[in-house]
């Protein structure tokens, strides 16, 4: 399942991210790539050792944790520390698949889901589309500022060359409480349906039965 979420973070936080990135130091993005990805990765990343970047990471994660759609779709168990990336003219990131295991301060984690949070307006740069190679073929995404795309880490994907301006984004990875992508999609659909039932009719017998089924499936499938 590939999910696009509008306004994944607040406009206030989005403005702070932009302002901070305008003043921060960036490093060669190949420093954080695997040995094979280094051959196709041409971008820059904000220096994560800077206190202001560490603070931004926490703020973005906090808002994502409060976002119902993100939580319903990803059901995060662990998250890799976020990266703030910049693509200037001529920069690109060729076809690659994200590492299956990534290091975190708390130890190694499995990557089930990847996400890109777009920071600047799509009209401010040309190129820079995220292209995801799925069973439906290649699909391109260039979302409004503040919007997020969540997709399986198992997919081949790339960032097309930027031909004008600069592309700013936050990228991250999630180890889900539910490893199987089909099970995550079932839970997402069921949770969506029960919320729609509540919005339309309140706490009905149907809502209660949907809630019971959702809870019991989570008990069956979750890894805690």
TrEMBL record:
Key words, A-Z: Dioxygenase, Iron, Metal-binding, Oxidoreductase, Vitamin C
Limits of the Fe2OG dioxygenase domain: 77-176
Domain of life: Bacteria
Residue intervals passing through the bilayer: none
GO biological process: DNA damage response; intracellular iron ion homeostasis
Cofactor: Fe(2+); L-ascorbate
Gene3D superfamilies: q2cbj1_9rhob like domain, Rabenosyn, Rab binding domain
SMART domains named in the record: P4Hc (SM00702)
One Pfam family per UniProt: 2OG-FeII_Oxy_3
Cofactor remark: Binds 1 Fe(2+) ion per subunit.
List of residues binding 2-oxoglutarate: 167
InterPro entries named among the record's database cross-references: Oxoglu/Fe-dep_dioxygenase_dom (IPR005123), PKHD_hydroxylase (IPR023550), Pro_4_hyd_alph (IPR006620), Pro_4_hyd_alph_FE2OG_OXY (IPR044862)
Signal peptide: none
Binding-site list for Fe cation: 96, 98, 157
Gene Ontology MF annotations: 2-oxoglutarate-dependent dioxygenase activity; iron ion binding; L-ascorbic acid binding
NCBIfam families: PRK05467.1-3, PRK05467.1-4
HAMAP family, sorted: Hydroxyl_YbiX
Name of the protein this chain belongs to: PKHD-type hydroxylase
Organism annotation: Halomonas shengliensis
Origin organism lineage: Bacteria, Pseudomonadati, Pseudomonadota, Gammaproteobacteria, Oceanospirillales
């Amino acid at each position: 399942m590939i999910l696009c979420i509008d306004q994944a973070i607040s406009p206030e936080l989005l403005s702070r991210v932009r302002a901070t990135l305008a003043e921060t130091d960036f490093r060669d993005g190949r420093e954080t790539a695997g040995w094979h990805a280094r051959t196709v990765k041409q971008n820059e990343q904000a220096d994560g050792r800077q206190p202001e970047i560490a603070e931004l990471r926490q703020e973005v994660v906090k808002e994502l944790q409060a976002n119902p759609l993100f939580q319903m779709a990803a059901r995060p168990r662990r998250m890799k520390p976020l990266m703030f990336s910049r693509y200037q003219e001529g920069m690109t990131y060729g076809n690659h698949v994200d590492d299956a295991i990534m290091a975190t301060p708390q130890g190694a984690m499995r990557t089930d889901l990847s996400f890109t949070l777009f920071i600047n307006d799509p009209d401010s740069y040309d190129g820079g589309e995220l292209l995801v190679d799925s069973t439906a073929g290649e699909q391109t995404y260039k979302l409004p500022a503040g919007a997020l795309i969540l997709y399986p880490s198992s997919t081949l994907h790339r960032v097309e060359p930027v031909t004008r301006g600069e592309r700013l984004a936050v990228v991250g990875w999630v180890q889900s409480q539910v490893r199987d992508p089909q099970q995550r999609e079932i839970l997402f659909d069921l949770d969506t349906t029960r919320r729609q039932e509540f919005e339309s009719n309140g706490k009905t017998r149907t809502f209660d039965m949907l809630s019971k089924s959702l809870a019991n499936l989570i008990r069956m499938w979750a890894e805690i």
